[in-house]
Design a protein that fits this description.
mainly beta, 69% strand
């Protein structure tokens, strides 16, 4: 296991199907997520609002361990989420 610093998800919230770039401040995570399908939910009930989207797709890039080893990731299936909530 490797401890990873804060992770940043860079994506277009107006078009979640554009590629996502996922990086960590310590440079141990450097991935691109290619969305292919999604599942979503929208709730707008007076004081409660929620927009949730789970995208399924594949990851490519690299992960770095504390010892400096690099794992190359290619066409790895997975998912990412965008969630906005207000209450």
């Amino acid at each position: 296991m490797t401890k990873v610093d804060t992770v940043h998800f860079a994506f277009n919230n107006h078009n979640l199907y554009e590629n996502w770039h996922i990086t960590s401040f310590d440079k141990k995570v450097d991935l691109v997520f290619y969305p292919e399908a999604h599942r979503g939910e929208l709730v707008n009930a007076c004081f409660i609002k929620s927009r949730f989207t789970r995208l399924m797709g594949t990851f490519e890039g690299r992960l770095k361990t504390d010892q400096g080893s690099i794992a190359e990731i290619s066409a790895c299936p997975g998912w990412a989420e965008d969630h906005y909530a207000k209450w």
